[in-house]
Amino acid sequence: MPTATPISQNTTVIVHPLVLLSVVDHYNRVAKSTKKRVVGVLLGQNNGKTVNVANSFAVPFEEDEKDLSVWFLDHNYVEAMNDMFKKVNGIGPKLRASDLEINELFKRYTPNPVLVIVDVKPKDIGIPTDAYFAIEEIKDDGTATTKTFMHVPSQIEAEEAEEIGVEHLLRDIKDNAVGTLSTRINDQLNSLKGLQSRLEEIREYLQKVVNQDLPVNHQIIYNLQDILNLLPNLYGGETVRSFSIKTNDQLLVIYLSSLIRAVIALHNLINNKIENLKGEQQITEGGEKKDDNASKDKEAAAPKDAKVEVKEEGEPKEQKK
């Protein structure tokens, strides 16, 4: 039900996997192979500290790619669905100029709409959702307040029935041949790529602030300062010594593994050589036995009742018994 629960930066938006599947299906049916985006209504409950997004439905939406201020959203369709479905809308893949106006439109149906952006073609491994709330931003120079989006954390969670359904859908595309080691290496590589992209985003943001392209947001600066304060001092003697010990231990394990593999390979080579020599010896002994048997067979085939006598003149004379 719509509630007037206040929203803060501590609020977390929880998105269920079925919502992500519905968004991807909507995008593939309507805007696949194009640069267009799709809009839908997310359904859930606001529990104060968390916003649980458990369902969604698509909404007819069109906008001019050349002029983002020109867009159309079917109000009648949303109003017809409002009695059955309530809560927030989701568009993507990035914030655009007309998003504040779209967000204000949905305040007709719920006092605190949540803007959730789902990236259907993520380049990095991670959570493909970003959640925002519209707030009034007070400027330091005393000028009039302006509306802007406040980013809040988002998570992907599922009920037990959803987990079973999603696992069943993804079972056919899961590669069971991938080993544990390769999976761990791939996960670490993806984590490093994600860290690199985040650092590049921080650098670009700070550069824009320095160039006065963006106003100074003190909350973001405070958060960056907290992150930098948590970094360890890599130039300290104890840290260098710990890294050296850890590296030496890992190199020792690699050396011992290589040495053991070499010894096992040499042992197998010697065993193969011995087996080959035994095989050749058996073949040679078998040939000699065959020759002996053949000689014995020839001797046994000669006539035993024939006898040859030699006369004094040297002429042989055959006698029979």
TrEMBL record:
<dbReference type="Pfam" id="PF01398">
    <property type="entry name" value="JAB"/>
</dbReference>
<feature type="compositionally biased region" description="Basic and acidic residues">
    <location>
        <begin position="286"/>
        <end position="321"/>
    </location>
</feature>
<dbReference type="InterPro" id="IPR033858">
    <property type="entry name" value="MPN_RPN7_8"/>
</dbReference>
<comment type="similarity">
    <text>Belongs to the peptidase M67A family.</text>
</comment>
<feature type="region of interest" description="Disordered">
    <location>
        <begin position="284"/>
        <end position="321"/>
    </location>
</feature>
<dbReference type="InterPro" id="IPR037518">
    <property type="entry name" value="MPN"/>
</dbReference>
<feature type="domain" description="MPN">
    <location>
        <begin position="13"/>
        <end position="155"/>
    </location>
</feature>
<keyword id="KW-0647">Proteasome</keyword>
<dbReference type="Pfam" id="PF13012">
    <property type="entry name" value="MitMem_reg"/>
</dbReference>
<protein>
    <submittedName>
        <fullName>4131_t:CDS:1</fullName>
    </submittedName>
</protein>
<dbReference type="GO" id="GO:0043161">
    <property type="term" value="P:proteasome-mediated ubiquitin-dependent protein catabolic process"/>
</dbReference>
<dbReference type="InterPro" id="IPR000555">
    <property type="entry name" value="JAMM/MPN+_dom"/>
</dbReference>
<dbReference type="GO" id="GO:0008237">
    <property type="term" value="F:metallopeptidase activity"/>
</dbReference>
<dbReference type="InterPro" id="IPR024969">
    <property type="entry name" value="EIF3F/CSN6-like_C"/>
</dbReference>
<dbReference type="GO" id="GO:0008541">
    <property type="term" value="C:proteasome regulatory particle, lid subcomplex"/>
</dbReference>
<comment type="function">
    <text>Acts as a regulatory subunit of the 26S proteasome which is involved in the ATP-dependent degradation of ubiquitinated proteins.</text>
</comment>
